[in-house]
Design brief:
Chain lengths: ~350, ~625
């Protein structure tokens, strides 16, 4: 295939592909959560059904709302996160990177939260206003450990790929910081930050269904809510992808080699069969999930699956924390651990000790 | 030989002469001073563009020339148009023009000091033109003083308490000007010349380092960095918003950073690791501490003033890196900051003028009433928070790269500690976003409080400058290569290897995304109608005022956090205010002197006799 064709194919497929992948990922989240809680869980297409149903519903706009901000916010958030994922896909698939793109990525990651904040603030609802404050505090809280974690990665990269390359994601993705002490600490902290960015359970403080009635999203309905759901689904693709690239050595997505195609096809058949029988027996349901994950690992998305599964497990084994607890956790504990990691990484860089 | 060009004299002398005249104009002739100010600032702006586009030129205007028998002393007003000065001149004059436009409507309804305001405005314009063009340290000092005095006059035209604020600003900046003077004379003593372009000192021995520190004090006090920043928030509270937009937000930054560039890149050869570390510490401490204070402010203008302090830190940090991309980023950030901070203060002024209060608690929901102010304020707020693809993001991005590059390429303490600087700068950016979310929420979103139903958008004369500035924010962000190549790189004589972050592609993607969004939007729209409903209050029926949640409580969690709480309380009481601490020292001194001056005649006689005895002993050398 010529370069040109690949390029065109990329631009045509990247947005729908990311959205589809995001919907599948949010299905995995719901399915695994259900299995952890010993429920059956939704079918594969459930997230898509949800979005389509919401698209058809009418949109309610509160009287007090700042209309343009209220209506535009979800779209801006979705565009921001799509932009981030396009950037990451380009780096993964065609190694197109530029100096300092890691900083651009960090800043683009703020866009969805910012859109959520402005939208909820524009709705004029007091519950949403409380949610707005919480969401912003959460952003403030996790931003410090996230930055420190990236500082660790940049130091590590200066050691292995040399100065100059340390600011480009493609070069950073050549190394695996998580295999060192400081890198592991940074990875774990960044994982928790991503948990908070996604608004997953110990940190779903801004939505807090039980006390704020889904806070920031309270006044959203219909197509607008669908856009928010889509945004969250795409974030489920972009953020773990970013973590994998930065900490776990990047992705080397490959199509199966010609000799393996029959096996691949067989696996797909097993998957289809298991899905068909999933309504009858729970075993088949679990089997289909396992085959699916296996296929993901086969095409080089194993790290992605690992990160998502870790996120889901944290989500399902923790209760929600208060905002002040979250802030203290991120600033004092995560911040302290990561400050130590930065020191370790610097020592490792100066004396050339790789494992530190 | 560069050509002589008498054009350079006009933007300096014309506004100074007219401004001085306006100070004495009777109050009845307010209209005259308004029109004169607008015309002259317009002329200056056009001239500055002409000067910028021409080749570098010089002009020496002989002021004093003593005959040979009296030592042959001569004093020339030496002006020279260098790329660094002229590009800043364009922007300084541009801000002057925009502010005089804004002030036509905002200033002087019923105040008697209209002429004083406009006169001081012209003095500022002329003084800053003098600073940016002067090639003679003594004249630089004189113009510097003119700007200080006109800042005093301008702040004093505000309402209540403005006299205190004006005095405080004048005392602090005046003290730093004294340091400036000492520094100038030290430089003269070391190099025997006042001509800036002829001086080059190495910072290896004590004297040049002291001179550098003195000049640096002047620069960072003008720009408003820690620990000499406290004049800025105090005047922010009581000075008119247009004054804040002109001086502390825009021109003072230009001048302070201009001086810093001149001393770090021109007069001194900065090769001392200690000085670089000092600059980095000042930079990152300013960024993070000021933004922490800004976050918990309840007054719109005071919050903006603390941000005016905080942003200086980025510029100083960028310059301290000593790398091409870092310095270019620092200067670009100065330019960007002047643009968005000026815009923010103008928006704040518009809100205060219409709603009658700058207290965040009593504002809210104004986005519907003042859509243009809201839109421009939102753009500027996102810009200052470094949201791509706006201009604040680009310059911060360059500064971060500079910091990381410094760590990779240089030795010494400052380079070793780059993770500290980087973390401070990047984290402060998140905190900046937080405090602007609070501002936008409390002023423009949220709900309209009772009593503000009649608020209207301000006049075109006031919205026009805001719109221009907001448009510049977007333009400098998306097409960042244009200002960098036109203004920054020639001014600094560097061409750093800056790769593109593809803002063009990003913009296309955003446009495509918005197109996609409109598609989704229309699907949703045509399937069912959009319905306007009352806000859902979980079934409770409450008055609107009870349902209004201003943003002032947002960051209580932070200000109540153990450890931070005590610091915030100390800051509230002014323990960290160098002006108050200096005042306290002075009070102790006066108390001692007062104790000495008991008013008892025999006591004074005893002192006089004692003193006389000591003098006698010393003179006669008895020991």
């Amino acid at each position: 295939m010529s370069e040109q064709l690949m390029n065109i194919l990329f631009w045509v497929l990247v947005v729908p592909g990311t959205v589809v992948l995001g919907l599948v990922a949010s299905w995995i989240v719901r399915k695994v959560s259900a299995l952890v809680q010993w429920r059956v869980g939704p079918p594969l297409l459930q997230p898509a059904y949800d979005v389509m149903k919401l698209m058809g519903k009418e949109i309610l706009v509160p009287q007090e709302a700042q209309r343009i901000v209220f209506l535009a916010a979800p779209l801006v958030g979705l565009v921001g996160v799509l932009l981030l994922s396009i950037m990451l896909w380009r780096i993964t698939l065609s190694q197109t990177a530029f100096m300092g793109d890691i900083i651009v990525a960090i800043y683009l990651m703020v866009l969805p939260s910012l859109a959520l904040i402005l939208g909820s603030s524009g709705s004029g609802s007091p519950h949403a206003a409380v949610g707005t404050g919480r969401e912003m505090k959460l952003v403030m809280a996790y931003e410090l450990p996230l930055i420190l974690a990236f500082v660790v990665v940049i130091i590590k990269a200066a050691g292995s790929v040399g100065p100059g390359g340390q600011l480009s994601l493609a070069a950073i993705a050549q190394q695996t910081p998580a295999l060192s002490l400081s890198g592991m600490l940074a990875f774990l902290a960044a994982l928790l930050c991503v948990q908070a960015k996604l608004g997953f359970v110990p940190f779903d403080i801004a939505e807090a269904e039980t006390e704020l009635g889904s806070g920031v999203l309270m006044e959203y309905s219909g197509a607008l809510l669908a856009v928010w759901k889509l945004m969250q689904a795409v974030m489920l693709v972009a953020l773990p992808l970013f973590l994998g690239m930065v900490f776990l050595g990047g992705f080397h997505a490959t199509l199966p080699a010609p000799g393996h195609v029959p096996f691949f096809a067989a696996a797909l058949l097993v998957l289809a069969g298991a899905r068909l029988l999933a309504n009858r027996s729970k075993l088949m349901d679990v089997l289909s999930l396992l085959v699916f994950i296996g296929l993901c690992i086969w095409v080089g998305l194993g790290k992605y699956v690992l990160i998502v599964v870790l996120l889901i497990l944290i989500k399902n084994t923790n209760p929600r924390v208060r905002i002040d607890q979250a802030m203290r956790f991120f600033w004092v504990y995560c911040g302290g651990a990561l400050a130590a990691a930065v020191v370790l990484a610097s020592i490792g860089y100066w004396w050339d000790i790789r494992w530190l | 030989m560069v050509e002589a060009n008498s054009l350079l004299l006009i933007p300096v002398l014309l506004p100074l002469a007219v401004g001085f005249g306006l100070l004495f104009l009777p109050a009845r002739l307010g209209m005259v001073s308004r029109m004169l100010t607008l015309i002259i600032s317009g002329v200056c702006f056009i001239l500055s563009v002409v000067i910028f586009t021409r080749e570098p030129s010089v002009y020496a205007w002989s002021i004093l020339r003593l005959p040979e028998q009296f030592g042959g002393f001569k004093l020339d007003l030496m002006l020279s148009a260098k790329p660094l000065g002229t590009f800043m001149l364009v922007f300084a004059m541009g801000f002057g023009l925009l502010i005089s436009l804004y002030s036509l409507r905002s200033v002087g309804r019923g105040t008697a000091r209209v002429n004083e305001y406009f006169g001081a405005l012209l003095l500022t314009i002329g003084g800053s033109a003098g600073i940016l063009l002067s090639n003679h340290l003594l004249f630089l000092l004189i113009f510097w003083e003119i700007v200080t005095v006109s800042l005093y006059l301008l702040i004093a035209t505000g309402g209540r308490n403005s006299n205190f604020a004006a005095t405080k600003s004048f005392a602090m900046i005046g003290a730093s000007d004294a340091a400036f003077m000492l520094g100038v004379f030290l430089v003269w003593g070391l190099s025997n010349t006042f001509t800036i372009s002829d001086v080059s000192l190495a910072t290896t021995s004590a004297m040049p380092i002291i001179a550098f520190l003195l000049l640096m004090t002047a620069a960072i006090t003008k720009a408003g960095a820690l620990p000499m920043h406290t004049w800025l928030p105090t005047s922010g509270e009581s000075a008119p918003a247009s004054v804040m937009a002109l001086l502390p937000a825009a021109i003072d930054k230009l001048l302070g950073i201009y001086l810093l560039i001149v001393i770090t890149q021109g007069i001194f050869d900065l090769n001392s690791a200690a000085l670089t570390t000092l600059l980095s510490v000042i930079g990152s401490a300013t960024v993070i501490i000021a933004v922490m204070i800004a976050m918990v402010q309840h007054n719109l203008k005071k919050l903006l003033s603390y941000h005016a302090v905080s942003q200086v830190g980025y510029m100083i940090l960028g310059i301290a890196t000593g790398t091409g991309v870092g310095i270019a980023g620092g200067v670009f950030h100065m330019l960007n900051n002047a643009i968005y901070k000026c815009c923010l203060f103008l928006c704040g002024g518009a809100v205060e003028q219409e709603a009658g209060t700058p207290e965040l608690d009593r504002l809210g929901g104004l986005g519907k009433r003042m859509p243009i102010t809201f839109a421009t304020c939102l753009i500027a707020a996102l810009s200052i928070s470094g949201i791509p693809p706006l201009n604040g993001f680009v310059s911060k991005w360059m500064i971060y790269q500079g910091v990381i590059q410094m760590g990779a390429e240089q030795g010494g303490a400052a380079a070793r500690l780059w993770p500290v600087w980087l973390t401070c700068a990047m984290f402060a950016s998140a905190l900046t976003l937080a405090s602007f979310v609070k501002l936008i929420h409390s002023v423009f979103l949220s709900r309209l409080p009772d009593g503000l139903e009649r608020v209207k958008e301000v006049s075109v004369l006031q919205t026009l400058p805001m719109v221009i500035l907001a448009a510049l924010c977007v333009f400098f962000g998306v097409f960042y290569h244009v200002p960098l190549k036109t203004f920054i790189y020639p001014a600094l004589g560097v061409e750093p290897a800056l790769s593109t972050w593809g803002s063009g592609v990003a913009t296309i993607l955003i446009v495509v995304g918005i197109g996609l969004g409109i598609l989704i939007w229309t699907i949703g729209r045509f399937s069912k109608n959009v319905r306007v409903v009352p806000t859902w209050n979980c079934g409770e029926i409450q008055p609107s005022e009870a349902m209004r949640i201003p943003g002032t409580h947002f960051y209580k969690t932070v200000s109540q956090m153990g450890g931070l709480k005590q610091l915030y309380e100390g800051q509230e009481k002014g323990y960290f205010d160098s002006y108050q601490q200096g005042g306290r020292c002075a009070l102790v001194l006066t108390a001692f002197l007062r104790w000495l001056h008991s008013g008892v005649l025999p006591m004074y006689l005893t002192w006089v006799t004692l003193g006389l005895l000591i003098v006698l002993f010393v003179v006669c050398g008895i020991w």
